[in-house]
Amino acid sequence: MAQNWLTLAGNHERQLLNLSTDRMGLSDAYTQQQLSPAHWQWLRTLPPNATLSPDVFVCHGTPTSDLQYYLETVDVQASNGIRAATLTEILARTGGQISPVIACGHSHIPRQLRTNFEQLIVNPGSVGLPAYSDVQPHPHAIENGSPDARYALLHQDAKGWHAELVSIAYDFEPMANLAESNGRPDWALALRTGGMKSSNIF
Questions:
Q1: Residue-wise over 162-176: b if at least 16 C-beta within 10 A, else e?
Q2: What is the dihedral of CA 172, 103, 44, 137, to 10 degrees?
Q3: Ramachandran assignment for 145, one of left (phi > 0), alpha (psi -120 to 50 degrees), beta (any other)
């Protein structure tokens, strides 16, 4: 907020603004208690997606959904209940968006893919949650395997657009301790290890 950076609304922002407390998950219910009137006002201004330039489009999940993974598919047959999406699945999720670069998030998995239309789709990963579990539409776990913060750098040269996925160590222990003190040992484990294997979620 202080830096006035472009910030998108994702599924949790939408849930905070639209769900009653009794319908919220643990994280949203906790967050709701921490927000000031200024936070609520700011959340209401966030767009679900944005066009940064004629070349770059940004969204939380896919161009048409804040709940759908773009580059992954939930699959009960796959390890951890999730697998890399096929090119056919990815193209179906693009929703007619023709920007040469689409940056997305939601899955927290750093990944990039160039389609057969030379469209670069980039997920930078997550700065603060390298692993989590979910039960929708089927139980699955996201695990990046390390506690590092992730981000991406986009650059353009004579050959087109390119992305560099960056992983950087940070002091995660204060946030892991905060998660534990608020009854979230699963998130504490995720923050410390980038995995969910020792939790009792599944």
A1: ebeeeeeeeebeebb
A2: -80
A3: left
31 by DSSP, 3-state: which?
Answer: helix
Single-letter residue type at 123: N
CA distance 151 to 126: 7
Whether domain 48-193 has CATH 3.30.2310.20 = no
pLDDT of residue 199: 43
Contact assessment for residue 191 and residue 175, using Cβ atoms and an 8 Å cutoff: yes
List the beta bridge partners of residue 120: 101, 114
Taking only the tens place, the pLDDT of each residue in 48-99 is 999 999 999 999 999 999 999 999 999 999 989 999 999 999 999 999 999 9
Structure pTM? 0.92
Q: What is the pLDDT of residues 113-168, one digit of tens each?
A: 999 889 999 999 999 899 999 998 999 999 999 999 999 999 999 999 999 999 99
Amino acid identity of residue 131, one-letter, is A
List the domain boundaries for the chain: 48-193
Q: Round to whole Å and give the CA distance between 43 and 8.
A: 9
CA distances from 100 to 57, 82, 125 (A): 8, 27, 20
